[in-house]
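Input record, target 12 of the design panel.
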């Protein structure tokens, strides 16, 4: 598996663990104020990054690697910005709007770039088996 796919999966696992711990805390306390945060952590973190990692793992060398790393960074930064502001908002405090809006914009832009990566990968010819073996050894 490529380093890019591994990075996406690794980040997805961290988000899944955070979502699980938050779910356990909410269940134990009986306070479900952070339900929307729990859902966003699981969907934007675990599910979205996991699916992106699966795509980059399956597409392999056909996927644009530099763009993939850009998407990885933008998506994680956007998630951290968005999720932290959502936590503040759910506590009844005003979020810092530039951080909230910036996080939302990064997440949406990341998904748009991911869509472009899918289209770019679909248009690239599949590598011959002889061309793939050196890539496997390098990863």
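The sequence produced for target 12 reads:
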């Amino acid at each position: 598996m490529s380093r890019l796919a591994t990075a996406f999966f690794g980040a997805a696992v961290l988000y899944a663990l955070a979502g699980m711990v938050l779910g356990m805390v909410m269940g134990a306390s009986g306070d479900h104020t952070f339900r929307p945060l729990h859902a966003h952590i699981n969907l934007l973190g675990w599910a979205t990054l996991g699916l992106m990692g699966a795509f980059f793992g399956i597409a392999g060398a056909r996927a644009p690697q530099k763009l993939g790393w850009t998407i990885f960074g933008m998506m994680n930064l956007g998630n951290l910005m968005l999720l932290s502001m959502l936590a503040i908002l759910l506590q009844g405090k005003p979020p810092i709007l530039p951080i909230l809006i910036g996080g939302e914009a990064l997440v949406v832009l990341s998904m748009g770039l991911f869509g472009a990566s899918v289209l770019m990968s679909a248009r690239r010819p599949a590598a011959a088996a002889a061309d793939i073996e050196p890539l496997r050894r390098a990863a």
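The radius of gyration is 17 Å.
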